[in-house]
Design a protein that fits this description.
With about 475 residues, the chain is an alpha/beta fold. The chain is about 60% helix and about 5% strand. The N and C termini lie far apart (about 80 Å). The structure holds NADP nicotinamide-adenine-dinucleotide phosphate.
Length: about 475
């Protein structure tokens, strides 16, 4: 009966899934439509999963014996995996999002590797091209799995320092060449052997082992702070691996989903690199922000001038235009709700308030947009760098809250700075700048910010949320005194 399920249904379901993926992705390009975009893409994934059951049920056993899987076990795996993902997705803090993305990404790579393993160990590969594609998917998936796990460990603080050995690049090169050599040998033997892959479980095991080791070696030396970009690269790898395995299984939904993820991951990687004015190879092969990258900063003129939160709050209450620059520290302090409460007070007093978001503020692309959206900040108050940078010079106050590198003027002037050339928000051009941070902590790049020493800049020391509470009290106090 099952073999009667027409191929047409499978084709249409795959097409529907592919359409939903792409339409969902399109909707994710704007913060206004992004939530529905995520829902649509999720729906696409559900359709794709259902379509994969149609494959199992719809194709005759004689045609594809390896498709005879245990449907009951697959359902149990889906329920357990789906439940765990739902629970962790609900529970995760915004600042821990990169870790979660790293783990899920690694699982995607692992899944692609697992498909390849089933095909290789189960002797299902037909022909040299399919074998080559399977091995490529296996290699990329395995590298993505082990690399993403290391990335997760670094982001979560399990691995605290970049681990580099002398001759690291050469070691990585040897690991990569050894993996490729074993892969090449498998393809060679498969050509000459009448019954390919039968006698090669050890070789295939070695191939996977080497690929996993290569992923670890490649990721260990990279600075923890560069992990978001590395995760984005592995995301692209995972997509590619899944797409390749989709080709092996001749599953169009898998192919399209994999290629969409691969292309999106690669574009995101390039955008992040561009926003930091760094090349992808610089990210992969240098220890940015680590001891090697620290540069001798020239003598810094000026001094740090602390000011009370209440004074800064009152000053902004009497300003005409205020631009707020949120950064990683705002996410750490979870100060977004209080920030918007403060903004509403300013607006009620007639102050024009805008938010300026840098493309790599925070530790994940879009982190600030999500943070502000979470607090209910209307999208029309949020401006991206290129749309707002000219406004700073006509602004009374730039309130830099938990941000550092993205407003560091050294990026414009100091050729020896690791962030030289990175586009920054022109907060320094505002008439007055208030910087909210806990102390003298450096930003992600590990360098001093010359903005903090400028004559027009005052430091408001404290946890962002606590500072905002004081600012709110001060502005409310003015209203109460006037009444
Ligand atoms: P940042 O340069 O890392 O600076 C964050 C600042 O927040 C620190 O100076 C810290 O100073 C302060 N801070 C930390 N906790 C705080 C708290 N609870 N309350 C108040 N302040 C707090 O952040 P950013 O300006 O957002 O720049 C992002 C950096 O990450 C860029 O260099 C970017 O290239 C990099 N990056 C971003 C991405 C991405 O996709 N967004 C990816 C990779 C790398 P104190 O310790 O003194 O408080």
């Amino acid at each position: 009966m099952f073999t009667l399920v027409p191929q047409l249904t499978i084709g249409v379901t795959d097409l529907a899934a592919a359409f939903l993926f792409m339409y969902g992705l399109k909707r994710m390009s704007s913060p206004v439509t992004a939530p529905s975009g995520i829902f649509v893409a999720g729906l696409g994934m559900l359709v794709a999963v259902l379509a994969s059951f149609l494959y199992v049920l719809g194709v005759s056993a004689a045609a594809r014996p390896h498709l005879l899987v245990n449907v009951g076990l697959a359902v149990v795996a889906l329920v357990v995996g789906g439940g765990a993902a739902w629970w962790s997705g609900k529970k995760v803090a915004l600042t821990s999002m990169p870790q979660m993305v790293a783990l899920y990404n690694g699982m995607g790579g692992g899944a692609a590797g697992a498909i390849a393993a089933v095909e290789l160990f189960g002797k299902n590969v037909q022909g040299a091209t399919q074998l080559l594609v399977t091995l490529m998917g296996a290699l990329i998936g395995a590298v993505s799995l082990s690399g993403s796990i290391v990335a997760w460990a670094k982001l979560d603080g399990v691995i605290k320092k970049p681990l580099r050995v002398k001759g690291q690049q050469a070691l990585n090169g040897v690991a990569m060449l050894a993996t490729l050599a074993v892969g090449g040998y498998i393809v060679f033997v498969a050509q000459t052997d009448a019954n390919p892959l039968v006698a090669m479980p050890k070789l295939i095991g070695l191939f996977f082992g080497l690929a996993l080791v290569f992923g670890v070696l490649m990721t260990l030396p990279i600075g923890g702070a560069d992990m978001p970009v590395v995760i984005s690269i592995y995301n692209a790898f995972t997509g590619l691996a899944v797409g390749l395995e989709g080709f092996v299984l001749q599953n169009p939904a898998l192919m399209i989903a994999g290629m969409v993820v691969g292309a999106a991951g690669m574009l995101l990687t390039l955008l992040m690199a561009k926003a930091m004015n760094r090349s992808v190879s610089n990210i992969l092969f240098t220890n940015f922000g680590g001891p090697a990258a620290r540069h001798a900063q020239g003598e810094i003129k000026g001094s740090l001038k602390p000011i009370a939160a209440s004074d800064a709050g009152v000053f902004m209450r009497y300003a005409s235009k205020v631009i707020i620059v949120p950064g990683y520290g705002l996410a750490v302090a979870q100060g977004q709700e209080k920030l918007y409460e403060f903004v509403k007070l300013l607006q009620a007093a007639g102050v024009a308030v805008k938010f300026a978001v840098h493309p790599v503020a925070g530790r994940m692309p879009g982190q600030m947009d999500v943070l502000l959206a979470e607090a209910g900040v209307p999208y029309d108050l949020i401006f991206q760098l290129e749309d707002i940078n000219d406004d700073f010079k006509s602004t009374d106050v730039a309130l830099v809250i938990g941000a550092n590198d993205v407003v560091n003027p050294a990026a414009r002037t100091d050729k020896s700075s690791p962030i030289f050339g990175m586009p920054i928000l022109n907060a320094d051009a505002a008439k007055k700048v208030y910087v909210v941070k806990r102390g003298e902590g450096k930003g992600y790049a590990g360098i001093v910010n010359t903005l903090f020493y400028q004559d027009n800049c005052n430091m408001v020391y404290g946890d962002a949320q606590a500072v905002l509470v004081k600012m709110i009290e001060a502005v409310r106090g003015l209203g109460a005194a006037a009444a």
